[in-house]
């Protein structure tokens, strides 16, 4: 029997696959579709202190190699998602879920975590440090000093399993520096990577940019970012203490892509652009393709190959 189950922060998940925050998780209808799919769990939209409409449309475009978006964190506010997850915890007490949050400063991060602490939430929190699509707001994940300050404050006020979603890094020294910061804290996981920020695509016929916000600049996802995502997953797998597990995200549209993220050291794998294009039924296909690859290679479980990427002699 070929098993795609996994464990993260001591919590068992029947399948290593799930959605990425921002895709099929805006409201109860979308989350219900993920809940009914073959995904092992779901993560909510990155929730803010108050609901947000997000950036003006058009703000998302599928491209031949992936997608570009500048959504601007549209969400219904944290209380909405906590209420929804509370209902699911009652209906499916054996399952655990991920609540994504993002504050616009440390005080807001603390306020969001207090709401979670005061609720009956029993899952994992994903603190988003990497949204590249809010005008006037830099990606926190590239400010290493601020990341350290945020995590210091966060772990003074929150005791549950918590991880951070990171932007992609492109320099070896940045992997070293960020890992040194992350290793100071009792993080349950990192999620690597979010979209590559501030890409630009052009409509050839009209000679115009493809999306409206930020004069066409947006986050790039899909095939474009898979090599960068794999590099980030493996670089952090090499550098982080074993207690900090990794969720791999970026460029996943086939079972082979899932396999490679796991091979690089991911414990779970999230799907974004391909999920947006194909819908939640993609999890059936990806699971079957991953199981076929594992069977062909003689692997019965993810632990047989996770993190065992080979190098050239």
Structure description:
It is a single chain. With 313 residues, the protein is α/β, with parallel strands linked by helices. The protein has nine helices and 15 strands. It has helices spanning 28-35, 78-91, 106-117, 144-157, 172-182, 226-239, 255-263, 273-278, 282-297; strands spanning 6-8, 11-13, 17-19, 60-63, 66-69, 98-101, 124-128, 162-166, 189-192, 196-200, 202-203, 208-209, 217-222, 245-249, 268-271. The strands form four sheets. Strands 3-15-14-9-8-7-6 form a seven-stranded parallel β-sheet. It has a four-stranded antiparallel β-sheet with strand order 4-5-13-10. Helix 3 runs parallel beside helix 4, helix 5 (172-182) crosses helix 6 (226-239) and helix 7 crosses helix 9. The model has no long low-confidence stretch (mean pLDDT 97).
* Strand residue percentage: 15-25%
**How many β-strand stretches?**
15
Q: Flag low-confidence runs.
A: none
Rg over CA atoms: 18 Å
Gap between N and C termini = 34 Å
- State the helical fraction: 25-40%
The main pleated sheet reads as: 7 strands, parallel
Question: What is the SS-derived class?
Answer: alpha/beta
Oligomer: single chain
Could you spell the SSE succession in H and E letters? EEEHEEHEHEHEHEEEEEHEHEHH
Give the helix tally: 9
- pLDDT average, as an integer? 97
**Structural shape:** globular
């Amino acid at each position: 029997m070929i098993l795609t189950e996994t464990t993260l922060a001591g919590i068992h998940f029947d399948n290593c696959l799930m959605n990425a925050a921002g895709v099929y998780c805006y409201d109860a209808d979308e989350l219900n579709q993920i809940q009914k799919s073959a995904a092992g769990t779901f993560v909510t939209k990155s929730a803010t202190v108050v609901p947000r409409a997000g950036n003006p449309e058009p703000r998302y475009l599928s491209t031949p190699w992936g997608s570009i978006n500048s959504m601007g964190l549209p969400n219904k506010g944290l209380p909405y998602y906590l209420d929804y997850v509370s209902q699911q915890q009652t209906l499916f007490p054996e399952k655990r879920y991920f609540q994504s949050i993002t504050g616009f400063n440390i005080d807001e991060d603390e306020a969001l975590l207090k709401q979670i602490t005061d609720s009956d939430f029993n899952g994992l929190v994903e603190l988003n440090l990497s949204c590249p699509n809010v005008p006037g707001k830099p990606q926190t994940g590239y400010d290493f000093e601020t990341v350290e300050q945020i995590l210091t404050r966060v772990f003074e006020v929150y005791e549950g399993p918590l991880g951070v979603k990171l932007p992609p890094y492109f320099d070896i020294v940045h992997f070293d520096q960020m890992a040194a910061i992350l290793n100071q804290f009792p993080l349950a996981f990192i999620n690597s990577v979010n979209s590559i920020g501030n890409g630009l695509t052009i409509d050839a016929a009209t000679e115009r940019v493809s999306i409206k916000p930020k004069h066409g600049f947006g986050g790039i996802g899909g095939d474009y970012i898979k090599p960068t995502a794999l590099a980030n997953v493996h670089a952090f797998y090499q550098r982080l203490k074993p207690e900090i597990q990794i969720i791999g995200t970026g460029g996943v549209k086939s079972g082979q892509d899932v396999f490679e993220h796991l091979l690089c050291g991911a414990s779970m794998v999230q799907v974004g652009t391909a999920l947006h294009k194909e819908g939640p039924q993609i999890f059936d296909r990806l699971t079957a393709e991953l199981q076929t690859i594992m069977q062909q290679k003689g692997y019965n479980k993810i632990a047989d190959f996770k993190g065992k990427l080979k190098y050239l002699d």
